[in-house]
Design a protein that fits this description.
With 50 residues, this protein is mostly helical. The protein has 3 helices and no strands.
């Protein structure tokens, strides 16, 4: 979620309707899914047991 904080907290200079759609999608992103995505794409799932 930290990687998306710029989208959530930033002020759009152009394309505000699109940015608002992104903000809505990011706000509903489950923490558990975010963690699993990071683990998967960094190859941590088989290295670290959380």
């Amino acid at each position: 979620m930290k990687g998306m904080s710029g989208t959530l907290n930033g002020i759009p200079l152009y394309g505000e309707p699109l940015i608002q759609q992104w903000k809505a999608r990011i706000a509903d992103y489950p923490n558990g899914l975010a963690q699993k995505m990071v683990e998967h794409y960094l190859g941590l799932a088989e290295k670290v047991s959380i």
